[in-house]
């Protein structure tokens, strides 16, 4: 389509008046044409004024996007203290040496490393905790110009620690290309296999071959919703079929007429070095929700002839498994909303009659790993975590002492060796990498992660409870300066997510000091839809009950006002991805509650989500418009469908990455265009686009720092903060 005259003539001139927070004119903002499309769902007509924006390759849409991005850039750059805030945030984010995402192969440790002052993490390894550090992959060296960057997406070492398969992608796209490096020679092998996003690589015991997942090659007629769906598991042998073409498919939908594999985003195979069996997983959304599991002997895996035996469906509630010799250990929430661990023989697996090794308790069983000396369990206990060592028969169950209360995560073990590595962090405590040796009374700090230079004794965190509309108590974590005055004048950001059973566990975010240093408060809402209290808490905030998530978020914001931390004129809401549903509720249910909405890569048009590449895998969480109940749930949570003309909406900044593979950029485009046209408040509604980014995964430190600086400067401007008011 040819760009309209209004788009071609759009000017970036700004007009400011003296009133704080209202010093803005929309007269020069690019205006999107309205071209209504009406779809009737089960008797309910739904009007979509900007459906055409879903065609992101349309020159007119591209022109409007670029004009919006340029306009937003000029507006934000006119805020006086924005640049100094960006510098401060980047110094906080890049000030510490970080090592994380550890994998253990005997004494050899692999991990990501982010050095102070650098933008992107590298892949490194060392032999033993005190061993010399070696850098394997530096994605910064892959870029050929400053406009594009590469990111390390995932990695997987062979069992002997000689080879590492890893994935890199460009511009935050997460479109991984698989490579292999040989540590013995230091050379890159010839392997270059594309379409390996979210890849699970499982090395066989020969240390020269592995199973990996690969997405289907999209043709000219492939619907977008199927381009990143139904990934198939292949077997690869080093040095053979180095581009992946010709590798034998062993598991996946359509691979074998005799094996019924349900539709889903990914399939992959799990192995253990001491087990003669393999477990295949059909995972709907590459998450830890219940999936479908199969078992076969390793020596019987031969392409489409592999005799996979189905052992669990989503109705069995299995979320994670570990193989050990001839037995399978299973994490399940069936009949146990806070999870339990079961055990069954791999030769004749029977989940329904499996032995209960670790029964459900008051804590939420969050994760487990296996080692030669037993199992290690991370348990969520209210606002903090506990770590336990459990024998394989479940009879010996001992707590492991921790140096401080916080989030236990990233459990790392080698099933052939004793002991555990894990991370521990809190809202005001930077991550430590700890280890536990069998027989010790407590875990000890390995020193792999040096002490943080950004921890501050002036900042504290505590938990309170908000009361939602139906009387449900919602935990709220509050992070602020010690002794913060409750006089209603503190700039406050309320964060929340509330989907997929993902919990907002305590995590150290040094960038938050950039907000807190200015007298700000961070409030984290632990809403229904998350996993803070197990599966029941998750299910109470999905599909037809998604309204609970939105109302819990609003209750949290009201709690901050009622407790005199802040007032509406100093209150901002922020979330991302599926949290876009919450941001829609925040601005639409009570438009006067928040002064600012910061919606990052938000899922806004839930009714159309199924049509995009990453849409179908999310149906189990969100529902489908193909049935009436699903439609009503999606319609209720669809922010885009509930914007009304003439409503005084808060100031809003919508952000997206042009390469986003998880939530298509058109969600934010359509939401911005509709809100700009509908609002009557006179407050700005901006669309921020990063053309070298995707969903935020793989973004560099400077990209993340600049986004925070843009959003916080925008919020402080609208809250009337001195130093953030554009010149008249």
UniProtKB/TrEMBL annotation:
Keywords of this entry: Hydrolase, Protease, Serine protease, Signal
**Catalytic reactions on record:** Hydrolysis of Pro-|-Xaa >> Ala-|-Xaa in oligopeptides
InterPro entries under this entry? Answer: AB_hydrolase_fold (IPR029058), Pept_S9A_N (IPR023302), Peptidase_S9_cat (IPR001375), Peptidase_S9A (IPR002470), Prolyl_oligopep/macrocyclase (IPR051167)
GO molecular function list: oligopeptidase activity; serine-type endopeptidase activity
Give the EC number: 3.4.21.26
Q: Which GO terms describe its biological process?
A: proteolysis
| UniProt entry tagged with the keyword Protease | yes
What are the residue boundaries of the Peptidase S9 prolyl oligopeptidase catalytic domain, all occurrences included? 514-720
Provide GO CC annotations from the record: cytosol
Report if keyword RNA-binding is assigned: no
* Coiled coil start-end: none
Provide the leader sequence positions: 1-25
- Peptidase S9A N-terminal domain location is 34-425
Name of the protein described by the UniProt record: prolyl oligopeptidase
The record lists the organism as Paraburkholderia megapolitana
